[in-house]
Amino acid sequence: MKRAYNFNAGPAALPEAVLAKAQEEFLNINGSGMSVMEISHRSKDFESIINKAKSLLIELMDIPEDYDVLFLQGGASLQFSMIPMNLLPEGKTASYVLTGSWSEKALKEAEKVGTCEVAASAKETNYSTIPALDELNVAENAAYLHITSNNTIFGTQWKDYPETVEVPVIADMSSDILSKKIDVSKFGLIYAGAQKNLGPSGVTVVIIRKDLIQKNAGLPTMLSFQTHADNDSLYNTPPTMSIYLLSLVLQWVKDLGGLEEIERLNEQKAALLYNTIDESNGFYKGHARPDSRSYMNVTFTLKNEDLTKQFLAEAKEAGFVGLNGHRSVGGCRASIYNAVPLVHCEELASFMKKFQAAHTR
Ligand code: PLP
Q1: 236 is in an annotated binding site
Q2: Which amino acid positions bind pyridoxal 5'-phosphate, per UniProt (predicted)?
């Protein structure tokens, strides 16, 4: 069976080896005679799966000891609310950097909870840029500074992160977690829905500095970080299947050589597509300014809308999946997360060149 050239933005491609392993173990996890979906979340078998996922993530991302790793539900979208509910007390301000639709949504939810300010916005450039670090206006009494490390829809990505002395930096890393080495100690909290680089949808990873986990008696139990930290992410029934697949994806990253190797591959994949755009004499136009380009989501248009439509139709015909830009911005987008093989990017680059040759007189 030939696997699709899958450039979906999320849920997205998973490593073939992970799916094969899951298939092999599907009816019988750990010799239990049951599938992972049928075992108790309080069983030894599941305990070893969730512990493995946690310890692999800690190892791969080099997460310091003063951080906790939580596996939650509700997607990254629930974190838009949980973060201010837990970390934005009265009398403090949350600072948000707007770099696209997801940061706008994060801000909108936080505003329902407390006082917020915009520390910088790239809206004027139609979100084709990342604001310069020295242009961030962090509120004086800031509880935290929120950024979106990779902007899935517009295709931009932070290269360096803000370093604030006292104010914790919180990053929505939904679309670039585990794609490169980062220094976790620069962040107070990192969160990510799993369905791009970590596994299937259903589980949300939160990496939180322990001193930020505080009692807040007024909060609904399920919305308090403390509940999940106190119960090792097993306060209620977790998404067992998603956590199992997450553990397999993490093992795959480790077997591949860890984040250094993943980063090297991701740079290679992104370069293939961006070089094709840059060498096309304007036939393809990248949305992001070159210094702000994402290595995960490559966004571009063609000379005009008709040609863009034709490109998407012919690409689909040729077996490329998921190249339509997000419904809010149009154009084309190739999402090239960790699990997208280099050879699929080579095929896409070659298709783009052939399409250009066929449509240039
Ligand atoms: N943040 C970013 C950067 C995203 O790309 C997405 C989804 O694509 C979300 C948040 C929302 O994630 P979820 O669907 O897990 O709530």
Answers
A1: yes
A2: 76-77, 102, 152, 172, 195, 236-237
State which residues form the domain around 303: 257-358
Structural domain ending residue among the three candidates 255, 290, 309: 255
- Ligand 1 probe mutation, 174, 177, 327, most atoms within 8 A of CB: 174
For ligand 1, whether the C-beta of 175 sits within 6 Å is: yes
- Measured by CA distance, the residue closest to atom 6 of ligand 1 is 174
Q: Are 286 and 274 in contact (CB under 8 A)?
A: yes
Q: Are residues 270 and 242 in the same domain?
A: no
Statement to judge: residues 239 and 295 lie in one domain: no
Find out whether 158 is annotated in a ligand binding site: no
150-151 and 332-335 strand pairing: unpaired
Measured in Å, residue 361 CA sits from the centre of ligand 1 at 41
Mutate to test the pocket of ligand 1, among 175, 196, 246, 297 (most ligand atoms within 8 A of CB): 175
Q: pLDDT by residue (tens digit) across 33-86?
A: 999 999 999 999 999 999 999 999 999 999 999 999 999 999 999 999 999 999
What are the angstrom distances between the C-alpha of 243 and each of 13, 228, 238, 248? 17, 15, 8, 9
Residues 49 and 198 reside in one and the same domain: yes
152, 270, 294 from 100: Cα distances, Å: 8, 20, 13
pLDDT at site 216: 82
Q: Which helix (H) or strand (E) holds 67?
A: strand 67-72
- Counting DSSP H helices and E strands in the chain, the numbers are 9, 14
**How many Cα neighbours within 13 Å face the side chain of 350?**
8
pTM of the model: 0.98
Look up the ipTM and state it.
Answer: 0.99
